Predict the structure.
Amino acid sequence: MRKNLDSIRNILFDLDGTLTDSSEGIVRCLQYALEKLSLECPTPAELHAHIGPPVRNALGLIMKTDDDDLIEEALRLYRVRFSETGIYENRVYEGIPETLSALSASSRRLFVATSKPLVFTERILNHFQLTDYFDAIFGSELSGKLDNKVELIRHVLSSTALAPDETLMIGDRMYDIIGARENGCLSIGVTYGFGSEEELRGAGANLICKSPLEIAEHFSAE
């Protein structure tokens, strides 16, 4: 893997569970939406397990429904609270600023590639003063377009003319790893986020890191 990392010029970062711990805000917004709809609400631990996929998909699973109208109403309610309060019930993982700084100093280009809507992603990165580390920020649209990680990474590669074999995706869930693999990119799975090491290895992660600083260490001995 050392030799493979030497060829990496571009690094894509997921947001939730990779750059920031957004679990408090997401769980509280899910609870808000379900309570407004007078639906039974799972425990916080059960809701936590749904963090990672697009919220629209997670709501369908949580409510055990494929009723598009109900899912869209739940998503609307979720966003009512998230856009004002939940978006800031969030924290940057320890070591992330130092890791981003070290990778930037190594002349690599850094990007954000998240299934979270771009309008929220930009606000979060600005709030935590992380925006300047990245060459560009990519997210989904509120309609759901580009919330599939395979499609999103393909869009990033084509929009920025990045070579897949020079590009690495870093994320905490299997969707990040599968998205990288399907686009011919390498991947690092991080276990400090919302996914397990078993999930990440099963999806085919090329490398596993247990902390942000461990990511930087893999690029430091060049």
